[in-house]
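Tutorial, part two.
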Amino acid sequence: MTERRAGNAVRAQRRDDGRRIGSWLTAGAVVLNLLQLFALPLLLLPRDPAWGWALLPSALLTTTFWSLIHEAVHGNLHHRRSLNDRYGRVLAVLYGSPFALLKAGHLLHHRYSRTRERAEVYDPATSSWAKAAPGYYLRLFGGLYLLEVAALVLAALPAAAVRRLARAVDRPDTVAGPLLGRVAQAEVFRRFRIDTAVITVLYGAAFVAYGSHGWMLLAALAGRGVIVSLSDNAYHYGTDLDEPLEALDLELPAPLEVLALSFNLHGLHHRHPGLRWYELRPVFDAEGGRYDSGWFRAVAR
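Running the prediction step on this input gives:
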């Protein structure tokens, strides 16, 4: 009984530590993004435009930022569902796309990866490399993020129109139909519209604050888009088709793995999507996990 109580105490302490870590990381991401959007253009750039280089480390932390949103998508950022979703919505607004869309899209990714969703594959009977390549490379070098941001225009449409659009674009080689169908659900669409309005105001104000230096913010967002889009494809490129659990575990130096919140252990995540980011490494080691490749090598491939 004593050992059982001790074990329960250890698990409870780990849960408490995880809750605190999630809250502190969320607060840090919010502060960093607000500094980027407003403090930098209003306080520092007027003194010296060279401060624009401060946007570079912010862009390089894109994987950390997305990984926090990813934790919220899976309900792992905070143990209280309501607080977890609030954190996710705030982070997604700063990211530039509504949480309702990102959550629906990512959960569909888990369901349809390598079935409906297999970006690098085309059917030679109906297409060719020349036809498939432009869309693929556009998606690879920022197009995924661009689509997530462009989806904001859906908020201007009636929900019924979005549902009709979902039926019109529904095909067996894309998740666009199911994604739009989920977003068009009444309560989901209400949150989608609210978050779209906040994003529009937030980024509109940020570009006003940047003024003639607005290209710097645009460049930072482009960097975010490229990193998100490349990473999204790298974990699934060339894996077995019709196997939704197929994904790659990629090796990163330990400090970079911490910065990525263990997102590099993506194959393990697909097999155990309920694990929190700090639980992935211990489980990977306990299972005798092996890397499929190095992260940089997989991205280059």
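The chain has 14 helices and two strands. In part three we will examine how such features are distributed along the chain.
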